[in-house]
Amino acid sequence: MSKKRKQYSASFKAKVALAALKGDQTTSEIAARFEIHPTMVSTWKRELLDNASGLFEGKQTSGKQSNEPSSDELYREIGRLTVERDFLSRKLDQ
């Protein structure tokens, strides 16, 4: 049996990365405290440093837009649902 990988929340990753940025403890000490591999500490710290400038650029709406489906996707979904509805209504009429 294969063991399923553990998923960490964004807030947990941020907490670990901020602890690494403080520099009070070594990477190994932080990893032991949060019970994770030291490589994860380094990776999350690097990601935080690389993406930190994006937090202060422009408006905060840019993060919300990426989660919303595009208008093309919505029109495709409307078309699919319309065809499905028409098909089912014809089946009910028979």
Structural write-up:
The protein has 94 residues and is an all-alpha fold. Helices cover 69% and strands 0% of the residues. Helix 1 crosses helix 3.
- Helical stretch tally: 5
Termini distance? Answer: 51 Å
Assembly level:
single chain
Which structural class should the secondary elements be placed in? mainly alpha
List unreliable stretches of 5+ residues.
Answer: none
Radius of gyration: 23 Å
Written as H for each helix and E for each strand, in order along the chain, the element string is: HHHHH
Helical percentage: 55-70%
Range of strand content? under 5%
Mean pLDDT: 87
* Beta-strand segment tally: 0
What is the general shape? elongated
Main sheet characteristics: none
Keywords:
elongated; mainly alpha; 5 helices; 94 residues
List the helices and strands and how they pair.
Elements: H1 10-22, H2 27-34, H3 38-51, H4 61-67, H5 71-93
Helix pairs in contact: 1-3, 2-3
Write a short abstract of this structure.
This protein has 94 residues and is an all-alpha fold.
